[in-house]
Amino acid sequence: MYAIDWSAIFGRAPSKSATPAGSDAAGAAHPEARSFFSRISPTVWALGFTSLLTDVSSEMVASVLPMYLVLQLGISPVAFGIIDGLYQGIAALVRIAGGMLGDRWRRYKELAAVGYGVSAACRLLILAAGASWTTIAAVVSIDRIGKGLRTAPRDAMISLRSRSEDLATAFGVHRALDAVGAFIGPIVAFLVLARMQGAFDVLFIVSFAVAVLGLGVILIFVEPVRVESRASSATVPGIREMLGVLGLPRFRAITILALMLGIPTISDSFLFLSLQTKLQTGATAFPLFYVGTSICTAMFSVPGGRVADIVGRGKVLLAGYVLLGLAYLSVMTTGGAAAVVLTLLLMGGYYAATDGVLTAMAAAELPASAAGGGLAMLATVTNVARLAASVIFGLLWSTVGMQGATRIYLAGLALAIVGATFVVARTLHASRVPDAVDPAR
Amino acid sequence: MTPLGKRVALFVGLCLACGAIVAAYVLLVRKPPVAPAGIESAWMRDHPREVADVLAHPHVVFINTTFDDRNNRVSIAPLGALSGPRYVTAASCDRVYVGGGRRLCLKADRKMITSYAGIELDENFNEVWRFPLQGTPSRTRVSPDGRLGAVTVFVQGDSYAAGSFSTRTTLVDLVGRQIIRDLETFAVRRDGQEFRKVDFNFWGVTFSPNDPDVFYSTLSTGGEMLLMRASISRREMDVVQSGVECPSLSPDGTRVVYKKREIKGGRLGWRLHVLNLQTLADVAVAEERSVDDQAEWLDNDQVTYALASPPPAVAGSDLWVARADGTGSPRSFLQQAYSPSVVRSPGAAR
What we know:
The structure holds 2 protein chains of 2 kinds. Chain A is mostly helical. Chain A has 18 helices and no strands. By secondary structure, chain B is mainly beta. In chain B, the strands form 6 sheets. In chain B, strands 14-13-18-17-16-15 form a 6-stranded mixed sheet, with no helix packed on it. In chain B, strands 1-4-3-2-27 form a 5-stranded mixed sheet, covered by helices on one side. In chain B, a hairpin with a 5-residue loop joins strand 9 and strand 10. Chain B is globular, with a radius of gyration of 23 Å. The chains are: A mainly alpha, B mainly beta.
């Protein structure tokens, strides 16, 4: 299957492992001695770089879009926010459709590529949209559709191209590369606008070019994932089959975990707003909070995933939410620059220990024929829980204040962690044992 | 399966093609922005005599939006000869206002980390002192006696994805050169009853021309936009009317022009209205386009406001004038200009 000997390629480069050059082939032969690079399929690397480039492209636009709308087009940011919620709903529906179609057609690569392609096209469309507010809103929604479409097939490919015992590491690598893109994007945008003042059109063209490169990586370097049709090829997965994965006790337990832990999650924008209100830093620091969190996420995702694969994914997931609780505490109790650094480190650790790890937990339980739909459903449950959490937090903020709302969420999170510990211990045991044999792969 | 070497070559080719697209766009397709024809401008420092003459007569101070090296510069034009040259100062700002001989401007320094400042300018438009702001500049006003300034910034409105925004409005003592207080510290009353909510947001201060202790502003809470009348000495304010945003008092102090929310063709917009503060009689201004601005009175009968310039102009905005009694139709006032401040009687005592 792996025509390209990537492990040999990477093995020759100075790598972290102390294995002398030449032992790579041996490493591949003896699974217990495999190097870090040989654990990660070339497909995962390629998908990671596609995400990195696409994130650079989308973040460089997202970071200047408010400025573009307000300064260049004279559109109020309030007007934009109003319909934003609607698009979130569209994205969730499209994501489920993307996952199901991927399972049904067995064409994850093609679907994901269409999703990346749609987003690339949107960079040109936004330039063509000019000053029309409705057209820009339409372009942003098409962009979201593209994002919704590609997420589940991409995660399914990562899952199908990784050994069961390396799943969290693989997702960690992908999420780390994704996070790198998230902080490079605004920097590229700044460099373009610093070089050519007000040159939003050039920025959109550069963003388009970067998105095309991202699309190029998936088209050129990703091998189509063919699911071995050992299950009868007559089964065409549909909605019933997708919901059927909820019959798997361990996958159901993971979905319950996602819901339970998602409800007491304060969105990072609220948490950063608290930090900002408390420190009186002003809007200046606001984008920096996101950049800082992305840097921390990029740093911690790979080690987080690796540790999860070794000691158990459930444990690392729980630890991640403990980090989130500590981030709440840090926002509530401390002050000054140290509090900011501590909070961003905790948030980065939280994302690194939960996002890819939860996906890996689910991927390990899903049959290959339902990977896309199952992962899409899990992501949707997580997002719905977070959306509800944000709405409730907003209401609490306006009634009992920022401090009170955070305290309530901290208590809720503590309860959820206790409950989740039971679920993990009872149903999932210590997650899957690393050296378990998975016949599906 | 295609060998790796071929794939890498294909990808390198794609990189080169993408680079070529960007280069071709920048070098061949893109036209560097130029000032629109018909707008004359000159640097203030090159014409001291003409500038002194403009400043001695009724004039308008504004932000020039022509897309060239004069973009965002505080500029002046005589009210008597608006079609003539505008004089461009060295001061670069996002919002400016003049009152009682004092000039206050708000500036966003858009670097890697954007910083924001309020800056007082002297009569030659040089910086006198500056104070830090907490967010993106939105509105500013100076009291008619020049003693007080008011500044509104978006604290979080930059993030369209967050779906919400919050503002902070601060009073500034321009004589003592210090920040006085946020409007959040004022006691707020409705029908005589004091009330306070966490979602209080204030914006758009306008100072009374008749009473130095009084100003009006918008208070947003629970989805309502309330017109507030405030007493500075008593640090309290009362609700006057609902549905009023960004008020601006007429020179005689009897009316406010404000923007009223309306959904038109499925999108949120604002219609300018004029409210009589004694009778509460309300009239819509004859401007059909959505106006998102704190309007300024040209005189007791006319108001001026900014609208985005129509294509092909990039990034600019134009000033328009409409009658305050709702009659007539809008006329063009000043092209490629923003944040107007009308100085009717120059040299008035501070």
